[in-house]
Give the backbone structure.
Amino acid sequence: MSNACGVDFGTSNSTVGWSRPGQSALLPLEDGKVTLPSVVFFNAEDDAFSFGRAALSAYLAGYEGRLMRSLKSLLGSSLIDAQTEVGGRALPFRTLLSHFIAELKTRAEQASGKDFQSVVLGRPVFFVDDNPAADQRAEDTLAEIARAVGFRHIAFQYEPIAAAFDYESSIAREELVLIADIGGGTSDFSLVRLSPQRAANSERRDDILATGGVHIGGTDFDKYLSLSSVMPMLGLGSRLVNNSEVPSSYYFNLATWHTINQIYTRKAWLQLKDVQRETVEREKFSRLLDLVEQRAGHWLALQVEQGKIGLSDAETVQLSLDRIAPGQALSLTRQQFNDSIAHLVGTVEDTVGNLLRDAGVTPAQVDTVFFTGGSSGVQLLRHKIAALVPAAKAVEGDLFGSIGAGLALDAVRKFG
């Protein structure tokens, strides 16, 4: 058994893989489950941190504090060196991120009985689009944090390549595979030659025909579904007495997981009160103020996320929005969702098309599309990707576990 692990630190969920002959690679991290939602809650009443599902439960139970989700989205951005405040205490985002990575390591070691000194960290093809310097800073920041929490030997692997290694462990012949990893924060793709024979090679560079990605994922789908359906109920698109629109920045912050806390600052609250005096549709804007006063932004984002997930299997879902108003509900259709994310899906399509062209591969040459990542269940995106390689068979991996399992295999290759 290896003394190295693979860590898939995801925007929405995280896993840790450890290669064990004859056993699942994924380690249980919370209540017997192999996923730990990438969530940190600081409980101001107890002066303590909680993580994952427990963090979400504490927040929803109404404890005073601060919830942070989508921390991975901070990597490579200027926000990584910023902070949030609760109860007069400053909470640097870098510190919150370090707490979460340390918790992953601790839970993995408790589950395995091992002291993991070596790790292969998954990373998106691009942490930051079209900015190599910021992308490198993101990787360097994650490496610094991993080292600070006790990992001595650190390597990185592209997340779609890790998923390819996991799929390769199940095939009997050579295949040219398009790996489609649609996660919470990014959509990443790799075109890889896989086979049982190639799996034995320690160096796989020649098997990777192309990689590509774009900073679009599940949290972006949540954001635009929220902006198109829920935020108009709170005044988005409504008018001020001078006939200009109510500033949209408040709604964009409220609809974006890692910026929700920005609308809770005293400065933002005073601005909102000023805007309220100028609004035409007072009732809608009052709903926004009530929501902010309740610190219910993350609750609203969770409702929208559940609606999005429901639309993967159903044509219509009902959102319960009782914290906006008693008995308030909203009906959402898959077509509404598709319309709200069409521009994002178009960008992802272009990314896949460019990947095939860069590799010099025709669509007919691709044998398989391997879908992984929690957001690969979005039907519109799935259909559009499959249509680009119509002759390929579609295979669904473990949506939340393929990357962690593949990173565990890669950890054996890199560290033994």
